[in-house]
Write a structure and sequence with these properties.
The complex is a heterodimer of chains A (504) and B (86). Chain A has 504 residues and is mainly alpha-helical. Chain A folds into two domains: 188 residues, no CATH class; 235 residues, no CATH class. Chain A has 14 helices and nine strands. In chain A, the strands form three sheets. In chain A, strands 1-7-6 form a three-stranded antiparallel sheet. Chain A is elongated, with a radius of gyration of 30 Å. Chain B is mainly alpha-helical and 86 residues long. Chain B has one domain. Chain B contains one helix and no strands. The chains are: A mainly alpha (504), B mainly alpha (86). Chains A and B meet through α1, α2, α3, α4 and α12 of A and α1 of B.
């Protein structure tokens, strides 16, 4: 009560504090709002050049970029592709999709980072060097490694030599392409086959990935000089065997595929079947032959990835089918269908997330009438003689209630795994709390103003002073509570806040 | 009692003010950190893009070179055939 008395009899010190509060809060609010809309400045091009050189030289990125590289490994492949065809067109010709800086938008605020990723095959020998040679590749991968090592020595024309030896006389020359995809905790992503993305920094997480493959041009072989990358267990390697690879103009055909084991993924083209080992329902993979003599495989990633097994001749069985890929046999066509289905599932999931976000926003919005209602109630209490102490108690209670609800909404957002959204929610919550504190600092002024306003409106209807404040106060609070509850119920009903299967 | 009230007022005011300043600083630092991170991400993305473009360029150049060599080779072979026939 002592504090209430102090607050009730506020003097100059508190008034001064109010001014300080106002200044600080307004500044913070301005920063909060601006930070949300602000975009990073145009980066220093010298720095861009420096990092590009490091990437070109297969060198290790500085620590601050290594973290980014890891976080972006699944998003670069998104590039600026508008659709699958666009994506594939970028992939055409054996070049990795050129990451567009728009990917940042794509991966960040628009969809939520990594909500849906596209995995694509690494196509350059450098990718292979990082992707395959790291030693996670098991037995048959000796061929892979051999081939790559040979290439790494700059002897592109002799690629596969070591592989032949290790394979015990099998004179199949190999061109290898490998990539991996990984999924970050909060969402789905896939990598494109960059050397960096296959680096050891992503070790272990690649187990969730899927892959794509693409013929490798021997032209890149001399570029391979760093074999320090690793392909963590569970990642995938697709091996392309090509008897005619020495001919640079040769375009590998489907028959050139051969299986090699690499973690979870095997792929071979000795039978015209595919075997899927789906790790999660959200994952999907797609194999597509663009033409008879050119094979392109892209892997569309879900949250935790999918592996494709393209296995032994004639053998066609599903070792496991944990996701949307039903257990059973697949032909190239049925695979296509399954992929389409899973694509739709992922799209659904993306939509679901957007819906969930909308629910959160609505919950947030429902707090506003609640707050307004609280102030009207305060006004009513003031005008009917309860005094500021009662008003403060009520205001505090209301704000505690609002803060609880807000925390509830934020917890949902965070639990849902929208890492990108959570800072925004944090800022939003902060802004609301700040606004509340400002409101409290001026509670008597606000209450007086609202009393006058409500009484004036009530006068139009012939109500006694204070009655309209009560009506508006109760109405606002009930409306806010109702709105918030409705959003909660709706979101629970439509399952918007259910944890994605991929994250379970 | 009046002194206690006054002290309490001061304590309350200063505490609140300090809290607000801390919040404000957190917001400022967090915002700046986000901006820096965003800038680094942009640098990385642009660098990756640049590197990829350069690789592609090298690949294209190489293909052109090979095609030229092949044409030259074919031309020379034809020339030899012609010479042989002659």
């Amino acid at each position: 009560m002592k504090i209430l008395e102090i607050l009730k009899n506020r003097t100059g010190a508190v008034s001064g504090m109010r001014v300080a509060v106002m200044g600080v809060m307004l500044t913070s609010l301005a920063l909060t709002v601006s930070s949300y809309f602000q975009t990073p400045e145009v980066p220093d091009q010298h720095e861009v050049r420096r990092i590009a050189d490091i990437i070109n030289q297969n060198g290790a990125l500085p620590a601050e970029y290594a973290g980014i590289e890891q976080s972006f490994s699944g998003k670069l492949a998104l590039a600026s592709a508008q659709d699958e065809q666009d994506f594939l067109s970028q992939f055409d010709g054996g070049d990795a999709a050129v990451a567009n800086v728009e990917a940042m938008k794509f991966s960040g605020r628009t969809l939520g980072r990594g909500e849906v990723g596209l995995g694509m095959g690494g196509n350059e020998a450098t990718d292979l060097g990082g992707g395959v040679s790291g030693g996670e590749v098991n037995d048959p991968s000796a061929n892979v490694r051999g081939a790559i090592k040979t290439k790494a020595n700059g002897q592109g024309q002799n690629a596969g030599t070591e592989g032949e030896k290790e394979e015990g006389g099998n004179k199949v020359n190999k061109l290898t392409s490998a990539t991996m995809a990984r999924a970050s905790g909060g969402g789905s992503s896939a990598s494109f086959g960059s050397r960096g993305s296959a680096s050891s920094s992503t070790g272990g997480r690649v187990a969730n990935g899927a892959v794509g493959t693409n013929p490798v041009s021997p032209v890149n072989m001399p570029d391979v000089n760093a074999l320090s990358g690793s392909m963590p267990t569970g990642s995938a390697a697709f091996v392309k065997s090509n008897n005619n690879f020495r001919d640079p103009s040769y375009k590998p055909s489907r028959d050139d595929f051969k299986a090699h084991r690499s973690g979870n993924v095997q792929m071979s083209k000795e039978a015209d079947d595919l075997k899927f080992i789906s790790k999660t329902s959200a994952a999907m993979a797609k194999k597509r032959f663009k033409s008879d003599n050119e094979a392109v495989t892209t892997a569309f990633m879900g949250a935790r990835g999918t592996t494709i097994t393209y296995d032994d001749p004639g053998a066609f069985e599903s070792k496991s089918s944990l996701g949307d890929f039903d257990e059973g046999e697949y032909t190239a066509d049925s695979v296509e269908e399954a992929v389409q289905e899973n694509t739709a599932n992922i799209e659904d999931e993306g939509t679901k997330r957007l819906v969930a976000r909308t629910h959160l926003l609505n919950m947030f919005a429902a707090l506003l009438p609640m707050v307004l209602g609280a102030f009207f109630t305060i006004a009513a209490l003031v005008s009917t003689g309860y005094g500021m102490a009662g008003a403060w108690i009520l205001a505090g209670t209301m704000w505690a209630f609002c803060a609880t609800l807000l925390g509830f909404a934020i917890a949902y957002g965070v639990a849902y795994g929208q890492q990108e959204a959570s800072p925004a929610w944090t800022f939003g919550a902060l802004a609301l709390v700040m606004a509340g504190i400002i409101g409290l600092a001026f509670v008597d002024k606000v209450a007086t103003f609202m009393t006058g306003l409500a009484d004036k409106i009530g006068g139009w209807f012939g109500l006694e002073p204070g009655s309209m404040s009560h009506i508006l106060g109760m109405g606002g609070q009930l409306g806010g509570i109702f709105g918030f509850g409705k959003e909660v119920v709706t979101s629970i009903k439509d399952g918007s806040f259910e944890k994605p299967e991929s994250e379970e | 009692m009046a002194n206690i009230d006054k002290t309490l007022r001061k304590v309350l005011g200063v505490t609140l003010f300090v809290c607000l300043v801390v919040v404000w600083l957190v917001v400022v630092f967090h915002t700046n950190a986000q901006m820096r991170q965003g800038e680094r991400e942009l640098i990385y993305l642009q660098a990756r893009q640049l590197a990829t473009q350069e690789r592609k360029q090298r690949l294209d150049d190489y293909k052109k070179r090979l095609a030229q060599q092949r044409r030259t080779q074919e031309y020379n072979q034809q020339s030899r055939v012609v010479d042989y026939n002659q």
